[in-house]
UniProtKB/TrEMBL annotation:
Official protein name in the record: Gfo/Idh/MocA family oxidoreductase
Organism, as annotated: Polaribacter ponticola
Domain GFO/IDH/MocA-like oxidoreductase positions: 156-217
Transmembrane segments: none
Pfam family, one: GFO_IDH_MocA_C3
InterPro entries membership: Gfo/Idh/MocA-like_OxRdtase_N, Gfo/Idh/MocA_Oxidoreductases, GFO_IDH_MocA-like_dom, NAD(P)-bd_dom_sf
Domain Gfo/Idh/MocA-like oxidoreductase N-terminal: 2-118
Amino acid sequence: MLKVGVLGAGHLGKIHLRLLQESQKYELIGFFDPFTDNAKKVAAEYGYKLFNSIEELIDAVEVVDIVTPTLSHFDCAKSAIEKGRHIFIEKPITKTVTEAETIRTLASQYHVKGQVGHVERFNPAFIAAKDMIQNPMFIETHRLAEFNPRGTDVPVVLDLMIHDIDIILSVVKSKVKNVHASGISVISETPDIANARIEFENGCVANLTASRISMKNMRKTRFFQKDAYISVNFLSKEAEVVRMQDAPEKPGEFAMILQNDAGIKKQIYFENPEVVNNNAILDELETFADAIVNDTTPVVTLSNGTEALRIAQWVIDSFKTDANL
């Protein structure tokens, strides 16, 4: 079992603490949180060992799980890596791309592994459908959430949209060519609603919408590719695949047949891939343990996290650029 410590005992930090305590792949050594009152309350309520400083916790573990506010990710990760500790770091990887590049370089220099907490990669609906996503040419995502003050220290792009950016980058095997975006601040000091159009060199286009002031929650992505449409509902954990294939000479009585102007007939087939329920946060933590023990590549690398942040920052920078066109 790998000795692990957690930095940050907020809402998500407490979830990580509980899951690491339950995991058969980690030994939870303890945690540190600079907010003394909260830290003491968590330690008293759950019995986790509370360390007096970041340095003291880092010295006691092999893996550091960074679940602090984004602004402190860089300093926490740098301190851990320079002590030769592997790092799991929540998304976004850091505040800036420059910081992310530095973390990636340091991890390579000190020969430690790192994984970024893009948890939707472990969503069972995406897992069920991802092997069917082959060369999508149009992607549409909607990630809408009811207002919650937690997370408003960063734009909605870094809070919500970055999940979908990472998913899209994981399935589109091409470089981003261009980004156009708009964002509006309604309640927060940073944009609460954003829409982005991401264009890839291979011709794929992704249209992303994110909002944290919606009346209802939605987390849905649609992938369109040749002869297939794939829908992934990250919220309800459901997946649907609609395929079009050449129609047989004698289709069944209830077959859905489409015919174009050239007389070519296609039959529509509906599929619902089996979705195996899981705990996505536990899975991402435990696959990282496997990567460390087996010396393999983590599912979401520091490079993946850096690229997702780079595109997210491009979206944010486009707010002003596109507004001035």
